[in-house]
C-alpha cells in the first residue's frame, strides 16, 4: 500500500518556483496523508495560524508537493 507525504515549502519571492526545494525553503512543513487529495487541503489554515501569514504574498510564497512513499 502507498501513502503520501504532503509538503509545503515557504520560499522567498526571489527564488524561482522550480528552484524552491527543501534545502532552499525558509520553512518546510510535512505531514503524512492517506491519499493525494490529502495533499491539497488544509494548508491555508495551518499557515494562517503561524507568523508566516504576514509574509505570504509579500516577501515569500508557498509551494506544495505530494510525494509518494512506500509503507
Alpha-beta content class:
mainly beta
Assign an overall shape: globular
Strand fraction: 35-45%
Order of helices and strands: EEHE
CA-atom Rg in angstroms: 13 Å
What is the averaged pLDDT score?
Answer: 88
What's the multimeric state? single chain
Largest sheet: 3 strands, antiparallel
SS field, number of helical segments: 1
User: Which strands sit side by side, in order, in the main sheet?
Assistant: 2-1-3
Helix residue percentage = under 10%
Low-confidence stretches: none
Distance between the termini: 6 Å
Total strands: the figure is 3
Please characterize this protein's 3D structure:
- It is a single chain.
- This protein is mainly beta.
- It has one helix and three strands.
- A three-stranded antiparallel β-sheet has the order 2-1-3, with no helix packed on it.
Helices and strands in order:
Layout: E1 2-12, E2 27-33, H1 43-48, E3 60-70
Antiparallel strand pairs: 1-2, 1-3
Can you tag this structure with a few keywords?
71 residues; globular; 3-stranded antiparallel beta sheet; single chain; 8% helix; mainly beta
Question: Can you summarize this structure?
Answer:
By secondary structure, the protein is mainly beta.
Amino acid at each position: 500500500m502507498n501513502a503520501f507525504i504532503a509538503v509545503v515549502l515557504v520560499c522567498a519571492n526571489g527564488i524561482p518556483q522550480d528552484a524552491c526545494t527543501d534545502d532552499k525553503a525558509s520553512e518546510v512543513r510535512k505531514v503524512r496523508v492517506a491519499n493525494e487529495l490529502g495533499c491539497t487541503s488544509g494548508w491555508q489554515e495551518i499557515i494562517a495560524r503561524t507568523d508566516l501569514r504576514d509574509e505570504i504574498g509579500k516577501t515569500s510564497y508557498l509551494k506544495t508537493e505530494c510525494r509518494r512513499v512506500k509503507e
